[in-house]
Design brief:
Distance between the termini: 41 Å
Shape: elongated
Order of helices and strands: HEEHEHH
Number of helices: 4
Structural class: alpha+beta
Oligomer: single chain
Radius of gyration: 37 Å
Amino acid sequence: MLKQFLHKGFSMLLALLVLFSTVSFTIEKHFCGDVLVDISVFSEAQKCATETMEILMKKTCCKDEIEVVLGQDELKFSSFEDLHFEQQQFVTGLAYSYINLFVGLEQLFIPHEDYSPPNLVADIQVLNQVFII
């Protein structure tokens, strides 16, 4: 049970690692003067109420900053043939020993499995009062 839980947890962790290392996103910040008004991820930041009046007056104190966090564009896929000969030997030996680790033993034959023990008439140890101490 624990092994299965650890296996699934580790698989999910690796999948999330690959997902988050390849995702790109933008962070948009809106400032009014020196005051941060809004931060937004994946969408446009909300503008302040004074910005609409500033557009009409042609002078602005608001500014937008956009940060782009780029994910990994290219993943490297390698094959078994890309490894050196010594590394190939090590991987082959490791895989062979791991596979043979779980080979089951053949079922043992128990000849008296279907026979029941004889009925006890009396317990001889209690009758003779001989006990192992």
